[in-house]
Amino acid sequence: MRKLTLPIFALLLFTSAALAEGGFYGDAPDANHPWAIHDMNRPQPMRVEPGTFSSQEKPGAPPSDAVILFGGQADEIAKWQADKTPAEPTKWEVKDGVLQCVPGSGYIRSKEEFADCQLHIEWSAPSKVEGNSQGRGNSGVFLMGQVEIQVLDNHNNPTYADGFASSIYGINPPMANALHAPGEWQTYDIVFRRPLFKDGQQIDPGYITVFVNGVLTQDHTPLEGGGGHKSRSKSRTFPDKGPLKLQDHGNPVRYRNIWYRPLPKRVTEGGEYSRMSEEATAAKRSEIAKGIREDAGKLEGNAKMYRLLESLCYADDAAAREAGVAAAGQFVAELQATPKDKLESKKGTTLQFQKAMDYLVKFKVLPEDFAPKAAVTEIVKASEWDKKK
Question: What is the pLDDT of residues 200-259, one digit of tens each?
């Protein structure tokens, strides 16, 4: 048997304690937090099988929930079209598993449209160095077709800072130049959040985070309207969805391994986070309480009592309160009727009940003078179970 390290052993003890305490463990929900601390009612994270990292020779595999925009297959060119109206097939080419810009053919856009995302894309500037500044290995990644993350061969090639590789073009330079040499594959990992408006007012400017070859170059940078060429952009609304566009800037830049993962809603648009508005929190707490009551309906005995009382931590319900309080009274009555020489066998369940009562009173779910709490405290003291041994 493998010996557990201290951190793992401590985690197992913590998890066991949290499960044993049920809903009476961490700080209770409040006006802005729909879940308790360490809440076992909170949904578990979705399982995603991780992908693999790329090498210069071979692109990595995407995670299991990724939407593949280009994975190296020739027929995947059908997922793209020329950036024209009306739409028409693109003249970009797929060669040796790589999507390559044909200079002069124009921008390309994905048929798939999406918004907030984690985007992974790899690109390579020509190995034969020609031109300088913005004329060397130039292309661009346009999120939702609106915001450009600059693609440029800046390996020993200065240019204006807000047009540097991995800049948010026209807005913010990268924090570092982490590019490989021309001809080698560069990896962009991008987290994109579009601007949000409500009733004509901006409630979130939108943000972009970028890693280049594993190095952070944009750290939650505000969009300031999305950027652009020569003119300062201003706050503006974005569509709900948009395509990914890749720029033809006259250089045969190559792309591979393009995929994205949609991101959940932010709290400002109804997403579920630790801290939420009072209105959203109240609605979520009501939903959680209902689910706990439904679960309680499938249980019997003490398990049902605890779930009914636990539901009151999220939202009050007259029927649940009546049934939970009655069950608590019955629990204490049975304890009081237990012969003294038989009481020791009920020590564990009694202390568990006392902890639940202390929790519910502490967070004002039950009144301070709740009779079953006083009664169980008296039993614990009389049995000297409150004394440390």
Answer: 999 999 999 999 999 999 999 999 878 778 778 788 889 999 999 999 999 999 999 999
d(Cα 36, Cα 320) in Å, to the nearest integer?
19
Q: Tell whether pTM > 0.85.
A: yes
Token pair listed for 323: 């049934």
Residue in this structure with the two tokens 């040499």, named with its chain if needed: 181
Is the pLDDT at 165 greater than 90? The verdict is: yes
Under a CB-based contact definition with an 8 Å cutoff, are residues 308 and 324 in contact? Answer: yes
Output phi, psi for 322, to 5 deg: -60, -45
SS3 292: helix
Distance in angstroms (rounded) separating the CA atoms of residues 45 and 40: 12
> Does the 67-269 domain belong in CATH 3.40.50.2300?
no
Q: What is the pLDDT of residues 287-319, one digit of tens each?
A: 999 999 999 999 999 999 999 999 999 999 999
Spans of all domains in the chain: 8-44+274-382, 67-269
C-alpha span between 208 and 205 (Å, rounded): 10
DSSP state, residue 262: E
Q: Are strands 139-143 and 98-100 parallel, antiparallel or unpaired?
A: unpaired
